[in-house]
Amino acid sequence: MKRILAAAAVAIGVASPAFADVTIKSVMDGKVLGFGDKTPETTYIKGNRMRSDADMGKRLQSTILDLDAQKMYFFDSRKDEVEVWDMAAFAAELNTAVDTAGMKTSFAPNGQTKEIGGQNAEGHNVEMSVPFAMGGAGGPAMMLAMTGAAWVVKGAPGTADYAQFYKTAAEKGWIFSHPSAAKAQPGQARAMAEMYREIAALGGIPYEMNMDMQIRMGDVGVNPVGLIGGLLGRSKNGTMTTTVESIETGALSDDLFTPPAGHRLVPKN
Q1: Pairing mode, if any, of strands 81-86 and 264-267?
Q2: Are the CB atoms for 6 and 51 separated by under 8 Å?
Q3: Count of CA atoms in the C-beta half-sphere (13 A) of 196
Q4: Burial of 230 from C-beta contacts in 10 A (0-12 / 13-18 / 19+)
Q5: What is the pLDDT of residues 256-266, one digit of tens each?
Q6: Pick from 94, 68, 66: nearest CA to 82
Q7: Residue 149's CB: how many other CB atoms inside 10 A?
Q8: Would you say 188 and 213 are in contact if contact means Cβ atoms under 8 Å apart?
Q9: Backbone phi and psi for residue 234, each to the nearest 5 degrees, phi listed first
Q10: Is the Cβ–Cβ distance between 7 and 206 less than 8 Å?
Q11: For residues 155 and 15, what is the distance between their CA atoms, to the nearest angstrom?
């Protein structure tokens, strides 16, 4: 099941930021947190609300995040119902499975630059490790290791709104994947959220991200063994590449950020 939304970075580092609604078109390619093919996405940001539409070929899969209401909505163009998740409750549940105090992060400039979408992007090397319990609190101790590079355009169009949204999301402890996927892979979900928080501190938008993820048993460097190791080797490691194709600023309708009229709301917590 491919349920994830494109996510992005936080924090205001731009002088005299100008706020305006933002539309970001990107492509995600990889095998992590539910993705397995190239998937075009369009992400809309308006204040403390975000919507992501993923083009799955024969259907459109949509996600709405409403930070003020603490709700996450998921719906599919082929169905007439909307999943509703209480994110305040979910964040508390996720924190019992992830050792946030034990997270280690390194986000450092690598001195490289390249042009992406007509913008000058600065390269940063990313290294992260996140301890978590497989299957939730009390499960086997695991470690998510993530390495890669992020190419950030500082002061890109829409940076102020982009940054403010993720700053607020980080303060509320949100993750940016479907909660059911996050429950199965809490280390990946928390690592991705932390990565976006780190990127946001730069006051820019990542126009390209290339990440490798590996889940291991115990401390980083100890490979999983036996049946668990075999399962992890087939399904828990992954790669992800996200590339921004365009960013536009301009007023967006409030209707974009509410569940479709006539759809049945289905609480999922």
Answers
A1: parallel
A2: no
A3: 27
A4: exposed
A5: 999 999 999 99
A6: 66
A7: 15
A8: yes
A9: -85, -30
A10: no
A11: 9
Of 115, 103, 187, 193, whose CA–CA distance to 156 is shortest? 115
Residues contacting 170, CB < 8 A, separation 6+: 10, 193, 196, 197, 200
Amino acid at site 196: Y
Two structure tokens written together for 168: 């607020």
Whole-angstrom distance, CA of residue 83 vs CA of residue 62: 11
The amino acid at residue 7 is A
Structure-token pair, residue 254: 């409030």
Q: Is the confidence at residue 188, as pLDDT, over 80?
A: no
CA dihedral in degrees (224, 33, 242, 99; nearest 10)? -60
Read off the tokens for 57. Answer: 């070929």
Residue 72's DSSP bridge partners are: 65, 85
pLDDT in the model for residue 61 = 92
The per-residue pLDDT for range 19-48, each reduced to its tens digit, is 689 999 999 887 654 445 688 999 999 999
pLDDT of residue 229: 37
Would you place residue 82 in the very low, low, confident or very high pLDDT band (cuts 50, 70, 90)?
Answer: very high
What is the β-pairing status of strands 22-30 and 39-46? antiparallel
Distance CA(3)–CA(116), nearest Å, equals 26
Tokens of 151: 């190419």
What is the spatial distance between Cα 6 and Cα 107, in angstroms, rounded to a whole number? 20
Q: Which of 56, 61, 51 is nearest to 39 (CA)?
A: 56
| Over residues 239-256, mean pLDDT | 93
Using an 8 Å Cβ cutoff, are 257 and 66 in contact? yes
How deeply is 68 buried, as exposed, middle or buried, from its count of CB atoms within 10 A (0-12, 13-18, 19+)?
Answer: exposed
Phi, psi of 65 (to 5 degrees): -110, 125
- In this structure, the strands spanning 141-154 and 119-133 are antiparallel
Rg of the chain on CA atoms, in Å:
18
